[in-house]
Amino acid sequence: MNKLIERVKVTERKEKPDPSSLGFGQYFTDYMFVMDYEEGKGWHRPRIAPYEPVTLAPSASVFHYGQAVFEGLKAYRAADDRILLFRPDQNIKRLNRSCRRMSMPSLDEDVVLEALTQLIDLEKEWVPRERGTSLYIRPFVIATEPCLGVRPSKSYTFMIVLSPVGSYYSSQLEPAKIYVEDEYVRAVNGGVGNAKTSGNYAASLQAQQKANELGYDQVLWLDAIEKKYVEEVGSMNIFFVINGEVVTPALSGSILSGITRASVIDLLRSWNIHVREERISIEEIYDASVRGDITEIFGTGTAAVITPVDELNWHGKKLSINDGQIGRIAEKLHQTLTDIQLGKEQDAFHWVVEV
Amino acid sequence: MNKLIERVKVTERKEKPDPSSLGFGQYFTDYMFVMDYEEGKGWHRPRIAPYEPVTLAPSASVFHYGQAVFEGLKAYRAADDRILLFRPDQNIKRLNRSCRRMSMPSLDEDVVLEALTQLIDLEKEWVPRERGTSLYIRPFVIATEPCLGVRPSKSYTFMIVLSPVGSYYSSQLEPAKIYVEDEYVRAVNGGVGNAKTSGNYAASLQAQQKANELGYDQVLWLDAIEKKYVEEVGSMNIFFVINGEVVTPALSGSILSGITRASVIDLLRSWNIHVREERISIEEIYDASVRGDITEIFGTGTAAVITPVDELNWHGKKLSINDGQIGRIAEKLHQTLTDIQLGKEQDAFHWVVEV
Ligand SMILES: Cc1ncc(COP(=O)(O)O)c(C=O)c1O
Ligand SMILES: Cc1ncc(COP(=O)(O)O)c(C=O)c1O
């Protein structure tokens, strides 16, 4: 495979940004990975090329009919300078599930992993060293056929771009205030809510803006049908600690199957903490919180790993969670997961892959 | 305004395609209209430029978070060679409604109409003369900010491209076979189903493919909540003629507010035919059809104007409509609308705008 990936060299390397002001997804490295698809020919011409603009016909189908899927994962720098990836196989599998749902051709998982590894190896100087920083990896596929017929595109481009990032939110374990949205909805069963496709994010912006205007950081979505059951947060899955047990919405078909979510469930169970994946109504949550039975709420996602929730607003009713303090379980999960990701902790689950 | 639109000349004009094999959305004219938006600066630099590729950063937000809206309308050539547009103001208003729903900046409606008019005037030789052909007009807006944060983009590009087209389907009033989809859904109330945004089309492809494999032309969507009420067809609204009355799904929030739909309702009412816009269950349709009360079903949309439906498949139950014959009302609507569009019929509603 190594030899199959063509390489075009950059003439000049960019200057690296100041690691203290990276933000999220603003800076990109010198190289990217690109591969093309054409009907009849399949995926071809895998190459590592200079990071440069994409040129597409104005009629390219991604602009009109939205076939676009993506993934997000991170490369971390260990204390001994090794570069570590967290469960990249899971992101690649999910990318393929998204492709299939969106009528897009799937990719050879080994080729994607090899591409990812070669690209990061070439760009390893871009993996920042500061606490909380990492190299964000964005694989994505877009439909490129220059034709306005509403049907699956006959050509696609797969790309991987790399961006050195600070933590997604301003600091690491900063609690978030969540607004329970009951007017707008994100996805519904039978739709594309469990695919990581661009339209889901565009569809979420209006509610996100409304929550921000009301002073909240993120939206907690309810199910589209009864507007009763908890789904997920902007780009995180959600967990509740109720009477010492952990509860999270089941993968019903309308939420994303988070890789952090799956890892958190495995960790909790390995600690003998009972985890239930089930349908949970926002009313149950409200009542349990009023009774004082909810000790923690937290979100899980690649961007911030664990985000404790310190306030929930449902219909104007404000719930303060754990007196605004970060909970014990969220804290321990965050510590353990980041330690595994940074190679500090024994990796009992074999989640970490060295580049 | 005329002087405000900058023009860059092409060096060479393309050869026009054979009008008998235009297909849909495959050929594009020599020029396009482009205008940019930046936060703080607003929409600026309206220009008519050579039709050429778009260059975007790999991190441009349209590729990742799907902020993209579009419109579709047609320019027709009248027998006396005038170029006519059908209700362009309605498309421009809908474009702005789509923009607002997708957290995108809206456009000055007069500027868009002026841009459209100037561009078509410049390209009038591209409006084909053959029966059933027209110049398809595709205005669209895409998010261009090179940043991976999930939030509304701070920059956008608005473009208008033109494509000479045959009729969307192989012939003009060709009946379609429709598959009633009850597994996949297109949109739900509180979502973005009433916006003409790219993600809605990507979300529909899987069901469309399934219908095609089963030998059907298009999908009839049911509501996402009860999977019981009729919504719309792929890119058409749907009408039923039941006991001499015409019934069409009300604009519930999850379907597109079609301009052909609105025009059909106005025409029918002007003919003293009773039209009801309401919630209609597929079961009612089935029962009415079995009783012999349904004399016609037809779709309405810019692409084919009126498409009679000659077969409906619901749960494997096949309904043959009007013995597979094109209905009287569909026929008359098609004739009247195309005559108005081509300037042959008196335009009582003032729908037609000359370029
Ligand atoms: C909608 C949505 N839900 C949940 C998640 C969390 O998934 P993961 O843990 O794989 O990052 C993400 C982000 O990736 C997301 O975009
Ligand atoms: C989803 C959808 N519904 C209905 C229509 C019909 O709308 P109009 O009559 O404005 O073309 C279209 C096509 O434009 C469409 O894309």
UniProtKB/TrEMBL annotation, chains A, B:
Pathway: Amino-acid biosynthesis; L-leucine biosynthesis; L-leucine from 3-methyl-2-oxobutanoate: step 4/4; Amino-acid biosynthesis; L-valine biosynthesis; L-valine from pyruvate: step 4/4; Amino-acid biosynthesis; L-isoleucine biosynthesis; L-isoleucine from 2-oxobutanoate: step 4/4. SUPFAM superfamilies: D-aminoacid aminotransferase-like PLP-dependent enzymes. It comes from the Bacteria. GO terms for molecular function: transaminase activity. Pfam families: Aminotran_4. Its EC number is 2.6.1.42. It catalyses: L-valine + 2-oxoglutarate = 3-methyl-2-oxobutanoate + L-glutamate; L-leucine + 2-oxoglutarate = 4-methyl-2-oxopentanoate + L-glutamate; L-isoleucine + 2-oxoglutarate = (S)-3-methyl-2-oxopentanoate + L-glutamate. This is Branched-chain-amino-acid aminotransferase. It comes from Bacillus atrophaeus (strain 1942).
